């Protein structure tokens, strides 16, 4: 038996030898791999490497300033030894502590974010590559008393050496060393836990081996976590959380479990495949930077979306149900079958959103699901497709390091519309049968859009290749007009890009109104024009209005004629169909953006709708459009003239509302727009709890929102309000967030500017959702004048933010910076930056063009 001292001495000797070999300057290849994962590298590796198993160990100290360290043993089959072996590891070279191949030290280089083993050290066959390393914190999201890994799309390589590409799936065997009072979860079930023999006050946890998954789907979390467990349909579900309000937890607990069970049951039936990944856990992450992330067996959610307040509207409840259904659908669409390369990342998102719409709807029979689909998808997709930065659904990707730039409304919102068009074209049964065959054929493997089209082509007589070229491979949307002439309606489409002349084949629904009667028709638009003869239709001459896209399915810039626009401005609230009202609101908003309708005329029509609209989904849409036109398109002097009337109208609507959810929607809008002294006094009385809002129980977050709104408007005693609110906050995560954003609420512009400029330091950007909250406050329209000088620094930081931030952060950073601005001065700064930086990475430039579109329109 060897003493502990001798063991340590022997280990140090081996590691010293390994580090000496590893630090050699031998050049393993004349052309070292480029930074990131080039597609050429990925294509070479996937043909040479198979049957990968990662044995991973991480030591996670309680002190988040101490480095996370670990070891890797990667076992794999190598079929081609003509090329160097390249693992991806995006850390400083000194984070690679030792490297072995099949148990012996091996010469290696650490270059351009890779660990490279020379081809001369390789032979075909089975190998085990060992690495001792220090992790970067980039993707580990370490907080004071918890952490969570988030590796999508290409950040696993910041934590450990890995073949980071979606088509090299692997099995993971994970061990963690964590503080003894912490809990942990990962993709596999926890199979053992005991005191760590090498570290006092630490426990060693072993997790079960996973099924084959892509590296972006591997995950683990640890910290001071609580758990709730439930059994549904014979399956045990576990919720990990940090919620400190027992009533808030109890109020939402059963619904969260039930929604997951419903989604699993529906997907098993639709796909004809049982849930494929064994255990099913999820973690409600405070201030999570996404809505959710679909790690099999360990889904991450934004806690604030799961734990709803009593005043939550049915729309918010449906949003939660849709989110849960979306992440659950990923277990089949994205996790079981994964794209070969991230240019097809949209495929997993389109099916997750498309299935979520089918799954969540039946639990809300009182809501118009067609209306909900339209509202959830078309406006957000149009917001990108109308810009100079529009991108296609399926995009080119040459290097995985740029994969984050692919994400956005086109893959999340437009793609489900495209899939709805495809389902209409093929039929619901054909699409379902094709998806079943596709999932069964590629289970635990990889497939791309051409593979799915091949399956569907075999079941249909439609020309799906041509259809796909227009809808999937090209950006933008058609312009469609429907015009009455000589007892006929002619529907015409054109492409804004004159050099393309694309045709978007789709059915176009028409609604025609005569003296309060609305008649509906459908035209199959398979060419540039289609004509509908209405000679035999009863009516008194030309209709009062012609509404194209009336069913919320068609996708286009549907242009109203002048007489239809004027009629609908005065009568939109009289349309019987809620869906048609929603479509009209979208058409009118597009008219405002294209300067064919004045913002004030639109505002007045919206104000009428606030008084009369009863449909909850329409109320949300109207209030959202109201806030949009109020802050960006109405001049400050117009807002000053109309704010008292708007406040009064909203208070009256709140009093009339029959549900807490509806009252909450009006109240939140009041908090956003109130500007009169009397209105602010009312809000302050509510914040001080000397006045209640009848029928609306307020929760901690709503009081926080009130305090921030009052401080933003510079009410007397603003600092005292913030002090008292800070003392009131009981939840530690909400308290930390409040402390972080508080400088952004200062009455001193220098303090606000200093908070914003501090974000140039990466360490101050780690908590991205807090950074965005602070940025929105600093650039609020009420403070846009003092913040305009911060636009250029924000744009200058953009490329670094893309390199260091999570996938949604660059666009959200731009939106948080620019959304509060509408001045010519602000647009001039953006315009000059675009002119000076013509060499900017094209996809990032497109994000800036998308984010700046509203500013450009407001400043014209």
UniProtKB/TrEMBL annotation:
Cofactor: Zn(2+)
Top-rank taxon: Bacteria
Catalysed reactions, semicolon-separated: Release of an N-terminal amino acid, Xaa-|-Yaa- from a peptide, amide or arylamide. Xaa is preferably Ala, but may be most amino acids including Pro (slow action). When a terminal hydrophobic residue is followed by a prolyl residue, the two may be released as an intact Xaa-Pro dipeptide
Name of the protein in question: Aminopeptidase N
Record domain Aminopeptidase N-like N-terminal: where: 151-217
Enzyme class: hydrolase
Signal peptide: 1-23
EC code: 3.4.11.2
Family classification: Belongs to the peptidase M1 family.
Record keywords: Aminopeptidase, Hydrolase, Metal-binding, Metalloprotease, Protease, Signal, Zinc
Organism: Pseudohongiella acticola
Keyword Metal-binding: yes
Pfam families registered for this protein in UniProt: Peptidase_M1, Peptidase_M1_N
